[in-house]
Amino acid sequence: MSIQVQNISKSYKDNFAIAAVSFDVKEGEIFGLIGPDGAGKTTLFRILTTLLLANEGTATVAGFDVVADYKSIRRSIGYMPGKFSLYQDLTVAENLSFFATIFGTTLEENYDVIKEIYVQIEPFKDRRAGALSGGMKQKLALCCALIHKPKVLFLDEPTTGVDPVSRKEFWDMLKRLQQRGITILVSTPYMDEAALCDRIALIQKGAVLKIDTPENIISKYDKTIYDVRTKNTHQLIQDLKEYPSQYSVYAFGEYIHYCDKTDDFNSIELENYLKQRNHTEIEIRVSKTSIEDIFMDLTTLNQ
Amino acid sequence: MKRFIGFVTKEFYHIFRDKRSMFILFGMPIAQIMLFGFAITNEINNVNIAILDKSKDTKTQKIINKISASKYFYIEQEISSEYQIESIFKKGKVKAVLVFENHFVKNLQTQKQAKVQVITDATDPNIANTITNYVNAILQNHTQEINNTNQPAYQIQTQTQLYYNPELKSVFTFVPGVMTVILMLVSAMMTSISITREKELGTMEVLLVSPLNPLQVILGKVFPYIFLSIINATVIVVLGVFVFGMPIEGSILLLAFESILFIITALSLGILISTLSNSQQTAMMISLMGLMLPVIILSGFIFPLSSMPLPLQVISNIIPAKWFIIIIKAIMLKGASIEIIWKETLILIGMTLFFIVLSIKKYKIRLE
């Protein structure tokens, strides 16, 4: 096991940031922590990167205890905090060589690890880091976190504030790093990125709701979700919420996602009901369940 | 060692690329020393005065000549009546008026005394006071000259001799003072700000999750400032000596040693401040309020400590700057050697050790 977390709890004063969280990350796995802002992802990262002490529970990273062996952990992990944390007044090349030196290595020595990513930012190597675009900054930060060939890579919301194209490129890079045997723990508030992980933990309000592969989470989901659309979207939400057997109703892109309590749900009945309420251009179809739907379900149940 | 050099190089990049730090580091010391040296001074030179000579005899003329010959006074005008005094003061043309009484020579010969009235514009009390003293000195000097030829029976002569600063140049107190303030500012404020900046930008998080140990981070942060502070101290001393004629009576080596000691004291204070604050703003406020004010007010730099109320005098003992000012004044002006200032030196060393131990205890290897 590359990362083992057992019953970790952390509270600030009286507020629980995370409560009794447990999970394991296998070696060479991309493990995603999926949850909204404030779910406790960053706290968990800081505990695992030895920056915070948990109130309860134990955890190991790369076989080292996060409290007793914190020094060994600091030598064997790469960490990319949520906030862009490189030196804005240093150039790309200076940032890289600084992080290489403090980890006791050089750019040349480990060039093969970062090569693929570095070639993309190399044309800008004399530019100050503060003047880079969001995607470039992310690539530079990843290079800096990888420069010492870490065994485990911690990426706290690496794609927040990055454009969709760069986000995709970023995930492609993670896949290639994984092939080098690097274990990656990544957090994201974007549900669509969940499907790119090998396994995910859905977390909300400091508690883990579910841990599984994205495929299993979707296939094990027993409810059917319907895409509903009419001309008057606002009124539709109101009316669906008043439908007697409704389980959940929420906007999802251009459709409203509707889930029913009963197993013998009949879409014709719903269509008639909506017609009675003067809806036109009614469209009802079975939706392809996504992680986000499951997350919505879990969090509404949780409340 | 390679790590350390890498870290220090990075620090120098930060300093040289930030215009504000560059200004504080190099503009400020020069500006301050020039300001204190030239603008803020208690000495008087070429003060405009007026004369009201009611007697107009040989004796008064002689005294007037003597006064106008000194570089301190310039006789702006002679007036003829007391009514004019107020109006010329109001116009602000002169700072003082000397009034010689009627029958000056006659009084001197018959009653063995004659009177000169010195009227000063006391809207600026310091200047008024200094003018009175200077006029008194000139008149006394003149009286003595007369007495020497007349040989009276008894006479007590005061012979004043001003050691170490015979001309009472204010720059002699300002150079050590400015040096202390600048070293405190550069060392304590700049280091505390540069450490808290890493916390604020989040780079401290990355530094903590690196194999660097706290000592390496702190030393790497502090080293460039030791180096720059030494340059600063040198610039101030060189300016003091060559521009203002400040002497260095004692050993330059001892002066250098004591200055480096004080720089380290200030740096350790800066580190301590950075462990207590999480933002550059707080660090700056603590440095300015907690360090600069006491350094300026309670160190004896501007206001003499001996004339302060007892509680303030007691508090001044915990201010490192006070001891450093005593030390450099002793070295530069009195030529003191280490046998004389060992006590102050030991106090500074003690304070430094205390701050360092406290900062190491307070330094966090984690985020909270």
Automatic annotation (TrEMBL), chain A:
**Residue stretches making up the ABC transporter domain:** 3-230
The protein's matches in InterPro entries, at most eight in alphabetical order, are given as: AAA+_ATPase, ABC_transporter-like_ATP-bd, ABC_transporter-like_CS, P-loop_NTPase
Looking up SUPFAM superfamilies in the UniProt record yields: P-loop containing nucleoside triphosphate hydrolases (SSF52540)
Pfam families, sorted: ABC_tran (PF00005)
Keywords assigned by UniProt, alphabetized: ATP-binding, Nucleotide-binding
Chaperone as UniProt keyword: no
Can you name one GO molecular function term for this protein? ATP binding
| Record's signal peptide | none
Q: Which Gene3D superfamilies match?
A: P-loop containing nucleotide triphosphate hydrolases (3.40.50.300)
Q: What is the designated name of this protein?
A: ABC-type multidrug transport system, ATPase component
Source organism per entry reads Flavobacterium frigoris
From TrEMBL, chain B:
Keyword annotations for this protein, in alphabetical order, are: Cell membrane, Membrane, Transmembrane, Transmembrane helix, Transport
Membrane topology per record: Multi-pass membrane protein
Listed GO CC annotations: ATP-binding cassette (ABC) transporter complex
- The keyword Cytoplasm is annotated on this UniProt entry: no
The protein's superkingdom reads: Bacteria
Its transmembrane ranges are 21-40, 171-195, 222-246, 252-273, 285-304, 310-328, 340-360
Instruction: Cite the GO molecular-function annotations of the record.
Output: ABC-type transporter activity
According to UniProt, the name of this protein is Transport permease protein
Q: Which InterPro entries match?
A: ABC-2_transporter_component, ABC2_TM, ABC2_TM_bact-type, ABC_2_transport
User: Which residue range or ranges hold the ABC transmembrane type-2 domain?
Assistant: 116-366
Family matches, as PROSITE patterns = ABC_TM2 (PS51012)
Q: Which Gene3D superfamilies match?
A: abc type-2 transporter like domain
Where does the record place it?
Cell membrane
Q: What organism, scientifically named, is this protein from?
A: Flavobacterium frigoris
Family, according to the entry, reads as follows: Belongs to the ABC-2 integral membrane protein family.
